[in-house]
Amino acid sequence: MEAKQKLLDWYQRNEVKLQVFVFVAGFIFDYFTADETDLFTTIQQVVYLVAIAFILSFEHLVESQVIQLKNPDSKWWQYRGLGLHFILGSLLSLYSFFFLKSASIFNSMIFVVLLMALLVANELPSVQKSGLNIRWALWVLCLFSFFTVLFPLLFGFVGWVPFLLAALATTLGLYLHFRWMMKRQKNFADLKRAFLIPGGTVVGVFVVLYFLHLIPPVPLAAKNMGVYHQLEKVDGKFILSHEKPWWKFWQTGDQDFKARPGDSIFFYAQISSPAKFADQVVIHWLYKDPRQGWMSSDKVRMGISGGRKEGFRGYSVKKNYQSGDWRVQVETTDGREIGRLYFELIPDTSIEERHWIRSEF
Predict the structure, then answer these.
(1) How many CB atoms lie within 10 A of CB 264?
(2) Are strands 357-360 and 265-272 parallel, antiparallel or unpaired?
């Protein structure tokens, strides 16, 4: 019993540090084990969301003395914080995984920065004294992210319709839970500080970021993007020809594109999307003008459909170009970026025979 009491005393002295450690552990665990959205992952998210709401609600009612604990020394109550932070870390890492793979680094980092800001705010003495419970904001963030992924899966396309439905569903969930808590506590001012203000702020920020095109178009993701000199389709496979030397392992295809007269530029990409998904994306070619900066050159629409594990394969061809810096962006039809690739076009005056390296997808 003495050893048990020492362990409990040590835990209470280091509770915050342990909770941060467990949060990070849950974040890392789910980030590296998460894959595509499926039925199991969806059920797991629902269970986690319900568990977080239950723990936070019960904790709030106990602190407000609405509920009296029969055994405050019970293990589940003493260690509830560890379980809560592990689940929160798991959920947020899952949504970070979706957001990071569904956009360029800049856009996806908005989500990560928002998450880190909430975590830091939760530890500020001024926030803790104010009665705000940032963990409720994290729960609402998870709830909004869940619906942001779910509705495009149900409808089979991305855009403002599924996003606004996600916003409405999150607001409804926030309201219904508030009503449930009010029936038990009947203290509007307390619930407003602890629950409504953090949760409502997250919903508002999410909506603003969406209309600023800073929310990635989950669950779409662009991968295996590259520029090539030649493209052939043989027996259902794409054969891509390039000159990239083996040591430029960080490049995809000919990102140092040596162009001879008559050459075409082939941009190839695999668009990952769930089964029964049918939508369109835009292949947007941009040229960096020395005086005016990045300028749009061409936009080509490409239909995509889900169900293939490796992603829907597609390409765009460009024959009219000039030397200099280029980038190709894969975007949704309303201009939300899914992925981008930079390359430099270099005039090639050589007449020597070219030896192609071929990649198969």
Answers:
(1) 14
(2) unpaired
Burial grade of 297 (CB within 10 A; 0-12, 13-18, 19 or more): middle
Instruction: Judge contact between 166 and 144, C-beta under 8 A.
Output: yes
Where would I find the beta strands (DSSP E) of 170-311?
221-228, 230-234, 237-242, 256-259, 265-272, 278-289, 293-305
Rounded to the nearest 10 degrees, the angle between the axes of helix 39-63 and helix 80-101 is 140
pTM: 0.74
Return d(Cα 286, Cα 278) in angstroms, integer.
26
Residue pair 340/330 in contact (Cβ under 8 Å)? The answer is: yes
Nearest to 94 by CA among 45, 148, 160: 45
C-alpha span between 161 and 152 (Å, rounded): 9
Q: CA–CA separation, 280 vs 261, rounded Å?
A: 32
Both tokens of residue 345?
Answer: 């076009």
Q: How far apart are CA 107 and CA 277, in angstroms?
A: 23
For residue range 131-187, list pLDDT tens digits in order: 567 788 889 988 998 999 889 888 888 888 999 999 999 999 999 988 888 888 777
Q: For the chain, give the percent of residues with pLDDT over 70.
A: 74
Give which of 186, 223, 212, 211 is closest to 310, Cα–Cα. Answer: 223
Q: Give 143's Cβ-side CA count (13 Å radius).
A: 26
Alpha-carbon distance 99 to 179, whole Å?
Answer: 31
CB atoms within 10 A of CB 40: 8
CB atoms within 10 A of CB 315: 17
